[in-house]
Amino acid sequence: AQVVESGGGLVQPGGSLRLSCAASGFAFKYYDMSWHRQPLGKERELVASISNNGGSTNYADSVKGRFTISRDNAKTTVYLQMNSLKPEDTAVYYCNTDPITNIWGQGTQVTVSS
């Protein structure tokens, strides 16, 4: 089982990015999924989660109203649309199942800076 995150980059404050997480090797459609982030020197934190059929989502208070998690079970991919980005969103972003399992990928770096 593995996940591969992509879509990160350097963006100015107020900008947008869409992260993707391609999953393989497990029955994706039966798993709730989650996005996490880890700023440099800080603990990893849960950003958002989504139920296996996409019908239920949850967000950290710090991203509520700005980020949207979604999934495409046919493509075994989960997405994180990030709008109105702030410098404090700078971090390495990871996806995983929910609850987490030992399938951490390499993550994708998001840097919000002018």
With strands numbered from the N-terminus, the spatial order across the biggest sheet is: 2-10-9-4-5-6
Number of helices: 0
**Oligomerization:** single chain
Stretches where pLDDT is under 50 for at least 5 consecutive residues are none
Query: Gap between N and C termini, in Å?
Result: 37 Å
Structural class of the secondary structure composition?
A: mainly beta
The gyration radius over C-alpha positions equals 13 Å
Number of strands: 10
Kindly estimate the percentage of residues that lie in beta strands according to DSSP. Answer: over 45%
Features:
globular, single chain, mainly beta, 10 strands
In short:
This protein is mainly β and 114 residues long.
Question: Can you walk me through this structure?
Answer:
The chain is mostly beta strands. The chain is built from no helices and ten strands. The strands form two sheets. It has a six-stranded mixed sheet with strand order 2-10-9-4-5-6, with no helix packed on it. Strands 1-3-8-7 form a four-stranded antiparallel sheet, with no helix packed on it. A hairpin with a 6-residue loop joins strand 5 (45-50) and strand 6 (57-59). It is globular. The mean pLDDT is 97.
Topology of this structure?
Layout: E1 2-6, E2 9-11, E3 17-24, E4 33-38, E5 45-50, E6 57-59, E7 67-72, E8 77-82, E9 91-97, E10 108-112
Parallel strand pairs: 2-10
Antiparallel strand pairs: 1-3, 3-8, 4-5, 4-9, 5-6, 7-8, 9-10
